[in-house]
Each structure stands twice: as C-alpha cells, then as structure tokens.
Amino acid sequence: MTTETETTQRFTLWAVDRLGLEVAPAESGVMVLTVPQKDREAFEGDEKVRFTFEKENYDRATPDAPVELITPGGRLLGWLVERVRTLGNVTHAVPRQEPAGVHDMAGQILSAYTVDGGSVHFAGFTLEPRPVLKVTYRLRLEGLEPHDELLEVYAAGGEKSLAPEVAAALHLEELEAATPPPKIAREDLDRLVQQAAALADERRKLSETNLAESLLPKKLAEVRQLEDYFDKTKTETQSQNSGNLAAEEQAALDEQVAALEDQKKRRLAAIEERYSVAGRVELVAAILIWCKAAAGKLRFSIGNASADTPFAAWAGLLQPPPFMCPYTGRPTFHVAATGDGRIAAAEEIGKCEVTDRRVLKSELVKDAATGMTVLKELTDLCSVSGQPVLKDRFVTCPICHVHVSPHILRGDQCRACPPAKTILKDDPRLARVLGEYPGLDQWRNWKLSESPAAYLFTASGLLRQLFIVLDKRSLEPLRIAGKIRFAGTWTDLPTTGYDEVLR
C-alpha cells in the first residue's frame, strides 16, 4: 500500500516539474529549491530552501544549514499546493514506459503457447488510448489534533479504482506531456471526476476513522476521570442526607444532585465535541493520463479447425491469456487436437489403446479386465463389479449365467454368487417371482442369494432340486438347472423346456 510519505514525495517532485522550478541535489537525501523572486516573501526572503523527505535528514540539520521536512501541513508543500491550484485545468499526460505498438507485445504473447501440429496468431489486435484520471486532494482533518495529508486517487471509468500496485505497474508516476492531447467527451470526463470525488470521500471517511481511533484511548481516559469525579462528588453530596432533613433541606439537596448530573452531561458532551474529527477535501491537481488498452483475440489453428481466445487489458499489464478448453474448462498454454479435429487442452487428450484414436480423456475409461485405456463406447459396465470392461472380454459365470468381467471369477463361480439363505414364500422377492411364474409354487424349501443383476433361487421337491437364475429387473430366466437331491452336479434344462417348469 502506498504510504503518506510516498504520496507526498511524488506530488512534490511532480509539482516542481510542473511549475518549472529549479531544484538541485545537495548532500545525500537533501535537495535545494531556488525560490522565484516574486515568491520569496513566503519564505521570509530566502532565495534558497533546503528540503528533505526523510525525518533522519531533518533531525541531523543544524541552525547554520537548516532543512525543511516536506509534510502535508508544512510550509513548502503548502506553497506548492497553492501554486499548482492556480494553474487550473486538467493536465494531459502519457506514461513514459508503455508499449509502442503490437510488435512490442506479439513476441512475448505468442511464444507462451505450444500448439501441437498447428500455430497461433492474432485474429485482431487494437491498442487504444483510454483515460485514467489521477487526482490529488489535500485532506484537512480538524479537531483536537489537526492533521493534513495528500490523497491520490485513480478513476478509470468502469473500474472502481486502480490499486497502487496496478498504477505502479502501469508507470503512472512516470509521465510526460501528451502532445497533442486526445479529446474526451465532456460527459466521460464528468463521470471520471465524480468517481474520483467519491473515492476521495471514502478515503476521507477512512482517515477520520483512523484518527478518531488513535485518539480513543486518551478520550476514554478523560471520560473515566470525569465520571469518577462526578460519581465521588454525587456520593459525598448524597451522604448529607441524614434521613431527618426538613422538606426545604431535602429539596435543596435533590436540586444539588440534579445539578451535578446536568453538569456531568455537559462536560461529557464537551469531551465528545473536543475529540470529534471532521475532514474536508480540497482539489489540488488533476492529471488525465492516457493509457493504452489492448483488445483482440488469439486464433489457434490445427488442420482445418480453429479456436479463438479473446483478451482485453491495459497494454502495460497484458499477459498471455490461457487457452480455455471448450470441452473441459481447463486453462492451458499447450493446445492440441483430437482425431476428429476438436481443439482442446493437450493435457485433456488421450489415446485409445485398441483403436489408436486421439480423443478427450473424458471419453476414455480403463478396462478392468486388461488395464488398457480404451474408448468408453467399446465397453459395458460389469453388473457385478460396476467397472467398465471391453464388450468382447465378458465371460458367463457358470453358476449364475450372468455376463461378468473375467477378473471377478473365482474358480467356477463369480463374486455375485454368495451363499444362499433360506427364505419363506412371503418374502417380497419370492412372492414377486411366484406371481410371475405360478408353476414354481409347487416347490418348497426355498433359498436365495442375489447379485446386483440377478436372483439365484434353489428349491426342493420330494426327490429333485431346482436351481433358477432370474434377471432382477425383468425376471427373465437366465438359467434353469435341476438335479436329484443330494447329487453333486446340476444339469441345465434347454431353454425350450423353461415354460414347462415356470408355468
């Protein structure tokens, strides 16, 4: 943040230059101003005035070689302020350090990008002068401890304010006259002036608050001292009431206590008034600084495809804008194209290990069976593991006949074949199946295990056992097998015999 000393020093040096005054360096940190003949009365007839911005130099000065410390309330700065104010009108200026044209900026910007198999170039670039109004105000804070300071504000139209670091980056303190000055519409200038005045008013309020807060401990100490005094006096006065005073004496005592309270209020109000801080702002100087603003767009071309990135900034602050990937939103300075010509962030492009197609990484998945990175469209999700698997890699579980990824097979069954549990016919899952397939109602001793995709039922009859696998959603039979009770091997029924069992 810019300090008050820095603001004062900048204004002093600018004012000296603006007024065409003669200033020369003396010893380290001290300068000498030659006072014009007509103004020497303001300096008690002195032809030369030695001054410094540093308190240390001021403290080292001797009566034989006096040095004036430049402060907002000091003699020399006050004189400069009044001289500058007599000049009137707005000064037009341009930064001494500013890009002269597009060629000064093109190399730095274009070299920031890597375009695989293509190029980047400007598809439009303009540099136009835009006004920034720098206004210097003198702020007078009046109260118990009067204080003067200089305020600098920068009004830049749509922007609320230019921060000190931005002003420094734009070299707004290193100016030269704009010849000839660009023209500005009266209404545009009025808007800048109003914005600057509003910014100065915000600074005034802040300075008032800061000064009031610095005085607060002293004020509170006075308030406590006053309240202690009146509380003590009131207690002493009330102690005169012995309880058997005559009416006239009691009335006089009450009147005395009320008078003390009234006096206390007046004294407290006087303290509030004495410690109040009021500031007023006076215009000192205004400079209309014409800064170049850059705008345009960058075009990234790969083959027959292209994509644009717009930019707009003060020319002195323009940095290469990142390319914003239109598919992923990723900012990047490395641009490439997919196999079908989509221009995207290179970091977001990958290759299918089956087809060798270059696509967005979001369109690829890792095949759970092989570990290869492949196109999502070449896979299905395994109903058991929930992981993507290449469609031609699926196997059928020999137990539940569900198509699964081979990596979830354990011996002769998949992980979807857990131990069966005994259920009753009123179990909602079995009730739904019996409602769909009434032929199963003759079986008893039902057991059930279920996978994410299928129901696995076993049931018993007098001599035989039944094993049925049904799709959980559709109840479509996936496998029906039977065996003699206590035999070890299930025998699959042909699909043509399913209805005979189910209906």
Could you explain how this protein is built, in words?
The structure is a single chain. The protein has 503 residues and is α+β, with helices and mostly antiparallel strands. Among the domains are: 1-87, no CATH class; 216-240 and 247-275; 418-502, no CATH class. Helices cover 29% and strands 33% of the residues. The chain has helices at 4-19, 55-60, 75-87, 103-110, 164-169, 186-238, 247-275, 428-436, 498-502, and strands at residues 22-25, 30-34, 48-52, 68-69, 91-95, 114-115, 118-142, 147-155, 175-177, 278-302, 305-314, 323-324, 331-332, 334-337, 343-345, 349-351, 358-360, 364-366, 373-375, 379-381, 388-390, 395-396, 403-404, 409-410, 413-414, 421-422, 444-450, 454-460, 464-471, 477-484, 491-492. Strands 5, 7, 8, 9, 10 and 11 form a 6-stranded mixed beta sheet that branches. A 6-stranded antiparallel beta sheet has the order 26-27-28-29-30-31, with no helix packed on it. The longest helix has 53 residues, at 186-238. The radius of gyration is 45 Å and the shape is elongated. The two termini are 87 Å apart. The model has no long low-confidence stretch (mean pLDDT 89).
